[in-house]
Prior knowledge:
This protein is of the alpha+beta class. It has 3 helices and 9 strands.
Amino acid sequence: MLQWSDVVKFATHGNPKPARKIQKSPEEWQQLLTPEQYYVTRKKGTERAHSSDMCSLFAPGKYACVCCGTVLFDSEEKFESGTGWPSFTQPLSENAVAYHKDISFGMYRIEASCNICEAHLGHVFPDGPPPSGLRYCINAVALEKLGDELS
């Protein structure tokens, strides 16, 4: 189980090795994604809080990166954070998510991105529920919900 100290270590000293890498040109990503998906995942945007029904969706299944299809999170780690974005306590595997220091807007945060295609997902905070204390605050538009039968 990842802890805040692990997340900080990855953001500071390097991320876990991904299973594979996917790279595309900006034009290729634009052809594959909606304008909002492209803005959030490729331009590090943020969707409006409470803009997705995914925040209150707790059906069993997995959540994959909308860009490359890599499975990132399991619904068993999803919780209601009240923030307006889907929140998880852990990624599906240690090397599914990459971490980067983010000092934009005068804040110190840790950005979470897909470790396979580098899509911006959201941020990780140390204010989640026990036992990990982590809150992966993820843009819903960056995720694709997979049903139980596909997971």
